[in-house]
Automatic annotation (TrEMBL):
This is EF-hand domain-containing protein. Residues 67-102, 103-138, 152-187 form the EF-hand domain. The lineage of its organism: Eukaryota, Metazoa, Chordata, Craniata, Vertebrata. SMART domains: EFh (SM00054). It is found in: Endoplasmic reticulum.
Length: 317
């Protein structure tokens, strides 16, 4: 029996690792496209990382200028989705968003093989449930500590899975599985993100968040510990900014404004910037010729990297 309990404990830990975690960082800010400053007078590293993604931009920095231009020409062909010979703002915006979502794709790819047990390119709810929870849901493990917590996690995961499963067939495509793992990235999942946030913080289960629950989610004082200044600031934010109808609570709409703030679309701004800088005939779209004439704005090379290093050294003198 002790051995069974030990095995059960190990599986509980595995389930915690595999199941969808509760939201640790409440506010879903849209990440910037690069850690670099966006200042073209000091080089185009921001543009390179925005256009290619951070890791791919590094590979271009090792190429000759001719190799970089050749690879850029092939990328332009991929961006031109309708094959009309022009890159529109919509096509460039889609490309940049795609490049910046690679970290999500890598996360999904990492977990995909764990759940797609029959390797049919889809993940059924039963596959996910059995992989994550199946081992310890049997009757012989009723005495496992925190079993009720994991049953609650199972119900939460099932609701999220069914919400992500847009066609309701009980099977997640890769896109739907991505929505399951990263719901904040999908408009149709945002109501669920808000619902889960309220459930996490709403300790008295009245369907809304009061000031004590709001602060308690961020700060749990030790005995006799004085409340730090940042907590006082958060109290002020709750009353002055979060609780817009001034009823003393955050409802779902107010939580949505808090955790899903409307923000600048960095990819949209970058697409507009690149088109503005390279669109010589000002027709609001760019050709491969216009892009290659300004190739060093889109991609780096050994030459551009060396030139930017010289600029940095000059500025430091």
């Amino acid at each position: 029996m002790k051995l069974l309990r030990s095995l059960a404990s190990i599986c509980l830990l595995a389930a915690a690792a595999l199941s969808v975690p509760t939201q640790e960082k409440r506010v879903h800010h849209q990440a910037d496209l690069s850690d670099r400053a966006h200042d073209d007078s000091h080089g185009f590293q921001y543009d390179h990382e925005a256009f290619l993604g951070k890791e791919e931009a590094k590979t271009f920095d090792q190429l000759t200028s001719e190799e970089s231009k050749d690879k850029l020409a092939m990328i332009v062909d991929r961006i031109d989705a309708d094959k009309d010979g022009y890159i529109s703002h919509a096509e460039l915006h889609h490309w940049i968003k795609h490049r910046q979502r690679r970290y999500i794709e890598e996360n999904v790819n990492k977990h995909w093989k764990d759940y797609d047990k029959n390797q049919d390119g889809k993940i059924g709810w039963e596959e996910y449930k059995n992989t994550t929870y199946g081992f310890y849901l049997g009757e012989e493990f009723d005495d496992v500590e925190d079993k009720a917590t994991y049953r609650s996690m199972l119900r939460r995961d099932e609701r999220r899975f069914k919400t992500a499963d847009r066609d309701g067939d009980g099977i997640a495509t890769r896109e739907e599985f991505t929505a399951f793992l990263h719901p904040e990235e999908f408009d149709y999942m945002k109501d669920l993100v808000v619902q889960e946030t309220v459930e996490d913080i709403d300790t008295n289960r009245d369907g809304k968040i009061n000031i004590n629950e709001y602060i308690g989610d961020m700060f749990s004082p030790e005995s006799g510990e004085k409340e730090p200044d940042w907590v006082q600031t958060e109290r002020k934010h709750f009353h002055e900014f979060r609780d817009t109808n001034k009823d003393g609570y955050l409802d779902n709409a107010e939580v949505a404004h808090w955790v899903l703030p409307g923000e600048v679309d960095h990819a949209d701004n970058e697409a507009k910037h690149l088109i503005h800088e390279t669109d010589t005939d000002k027709d609001q779209k760019i050709t491969k010729k216009e892009i290659l004439a300004n190739w060093n704005m889109f991609v780096g090379s050994q030459v551009t990297n060396y030139g930017e290093d010289l600029t940095k050294r000059h500025d430091e003198l």
